[in-house]
Design brief:
The complex is a heterodimer. Chain A is mostly helical. Chain A contains 15 helices and no strands. Helices cover about 55% and strands about 10% of the residues of chain B. In chain B, strand 1 and strand 2 form a beta hairpin. The longest helix of chain B is centred in the N-terminal third of the chain and has 33 residues. In chain B, about 35% of the residues are buried. The chains are: A mainly alpha, B mainly alpha.
């Protein structure tokens, strides 16, 4: 077809499509017929773009049609439900579904964490010298005197500082565990193994100085959920690593993007809890005024609420839900 | 008879824009995205981090001023600084990109924008994801961008995004052409009309008259009635539309 005739014949269609896309951009409601007509115009535009790109590449007409093709693709292929954030849908469906999808990997994180906890415990029990390397000479001197280092949280540091510093540190650890999946899962595994080892070793050291009871009392209110959240984020990171290493039949880039989106949902559901836990760890956990039983009850309650949300009936499809 | 070449022969299409990356859109629409390469991206990032550093310093000063004025306990000031720093570290880049369609301040200055891999606007989730792995990209990003044909860092790969140069030139559409003209002649005319406004007046007139003569010889009568301004005459004859 001759260029001038092509432009004269087809330009009205391009302008019509442009107007329709503008209406979509302004979130105007389109009737079914209007949407069908827009989709038809879009398909025609793709043909025009192919022609212009083949016959007149890098010219104004090819660029204009390319811009319209991109805009049309973005507007007509967009998953509106996926793009618009709905807090209700996130709370009731997206987060529980995403956690459930990562359960095997979260289970793997938990297993590795427990193994490394035992390793750390063993090392600290059989090689008490590790205490100095882990906790520093001053802290170990305090342990010899029967004092846990956690006392400083109430005696020397204002609660506002300790709570915010703890929350910040834990959120950074969770994000690192999550993002570490991009290194083929190695980063997520590292955070899991290191935290397991540290917990076991610190427990072993306090056992050695007969202060394990005090340590368990300190961690009772915040520890269970804190570890759970880090392991859940690490599991999501492992999901990213799995997509990177074992993409299956899909292109690796596509698998990675999907894993990234799912993992983001998990991370977004976990991070706010760290603010709550920061407050608990800074205010409740080190407080001698709060009884041991209350701390344990608070810790188990927080854990139950989170697990009930993440693994409960919410978010199950009708087929999955129990009859 | 084919028109005589007026300017140097245009390069072959594939060599015209060496920085363009060919990607396939959702409907297999081939698109040549003007990809931003490592140099411009690093410059934009350096500017962004400088601004972030400045913001952090201002944040600390603001918190101290508020605490001193209201007589609040110092612990809360430290808490505000800590949490503000965390929010800035992980949220500042994502927030800017979400609010301004894939552009941080540095990207605005250097004319860059984050788009989805198919050329369409990047989703909010994609913009958040690509910025959550900045820490890793500080270690590996440069190497990956240098090695990747689409100059993607880890965050881009995870989010499915690319960074492109925003086209600064307006859109020009020629609605009429002499019969039988090929892409090369179209490019010559478009190149002149697109740049005409930026040329020094004497040079513009000189080039315009040369182009007029060339078109006249290639397609006699196409330009229509003579005009005092060669650029206006060419625009009218080719039905040039700019936006």
């Amino acid at each position: 077809m001759d260029y001038s005739r092509f432009v004269a014949l087809r330009r009205p269609l391009w302008e019509e499509l442009e107007q329709g896309l503008e209406r979509l951009r302004r979130h105007e409601a389109l009737t079914y017929e209007e949407l069908e007509a827009l989709a038809m115009l879009y398909r025609q535009l793709l043909q025009d773009h192919a022609w212009a790109r083949a016959r007149y590449p890098h010219t104004g007409v090819a660029r204009r049609l390319e811009r319209l093709a991109v805009a049309g693709t973005g507007a007509l292929h967009r998953d509106a439900a996926g793009d618009r954030f709905s807090p209700r849908r996130f709370l009731l469906d997206r987060f529980p579904q995403a956690v459930r999808a990562h359960l095997p990997l979260i289970g793997l994180s938990l297993a590795l964490f427990l193994v490394m906890t035992l390793v750390g415990l063993g090392v600290a029990v059989f090689e008490p010298g590790v205490a100095v390397a882990l906790l520093g000479p001053e802290t170990v001197a305090g342990l010899r005197d029967g004092r846990l280092w956690t006392e400083a949280l109430t005696t020397t540091v204002p609660p506002a500082i300790s709570s915010s510093a703890i929350a910040r540190n834990n959120m950074s650890v969770a994000i690192t565990a999550w993002a570490g999946g991009l290194l083929g899962g190695v980063g997520s595994l590292w955070i899991t193994l290191l935290n397991g080892y540290m917990l076991g070793a610190v427990l072993g050291v306090t056992l050695h100085f007969s202060l394990a009871g005090e340590l368990l009392e300190f961690v009772a209110a915040h520890g269970p959920l804190e570890i759970t959240l880090i392991l859940v984020c690490a599991g999501a990171g492992l999901g990213i690593g799995r997509a990177l290493l074992v993409a299956g039949e899909r292109p690796r880039g596509q698998a990675l993007q999907q894993a990234g989106r799912e993992a983001l949902v998990v991370l977004a559901g976990c991070l706010p809890w760290f603010l709550v836990l920061g407050a608990v760890e800074g205010l409740v956990s080190p407080s001698p005024a709060v009884p041991w039983g209350t701390k344990l009850f608070l810790g188990l309650s927080l854990q139950a609420v989170f697990l009930g949300w993440a693994l409960g009936a919410a978010g199950r499809s009708p087929r999955e839900a129990p009859a | 008879m084919p028109p005589r070449p007026l300017l140097a022969e245009p390069a072959a299409p594939e060599a015209i824009d060496a920085s363009a990356g060919l990607v396939l859109g959702l409907d297999n629409v081939p698109m040549e995205l003007p990809l931003a390469r490592i140099g411009s991206r690093v410059l934009a990032a350096v500017l962004d981090y400088l601004v972030l550093g400045l913001m952090m310093a201002l944040w600390v000063m603001a918190v101290i001023a508020v605490v001193a004025t209201l007589g609040i306990e110092g612990g809360w000031a430290v808490a505000a600084v800590l949490l503000g720093a965390f929010a800035a570290e992980y949220g500042w880049f994502a927030l800017q990109e979400v609010l301004s369609g894939g552009r941080t301040l540095g990207k605005r200055v250097f004319g860059l924008r984050v788009v989805a891999g198919d050329g369409s606007a990047a989703s909010v989730a994609a913009l958040v994801v690509r910025n959550l792995v900045r820490l890793l990209d500080l270690l590996f990003g440069l190497l990956l961008m240098a090695a990747d044909p689409l100059s993607r860092r880890l965050g881009d790969r995870l989010a499915g995004t690319v960074v492109v140069h925003q086209r600064r030139d307006g859109e020009l559409l020629l609605t009429r052409l002499p019969r039988g003209w090929s892409v090369r002649e179209v490019r010559v005319v478009e190149a002149f009309l697109r740049r005409a406004a930026a040329l020094e007046p004497g040079r513009r007139r000189q080039l315009g008259e040369r182009l007029e003569a060339w078109v006249e010889s290639a397609a006699p009568g196409f330009l229509g009635a003579p005009s005092a301004d060669p650029v206006s005459r060419l625009r009218r004859a080719f039905g040039a539309e700019e936006r």
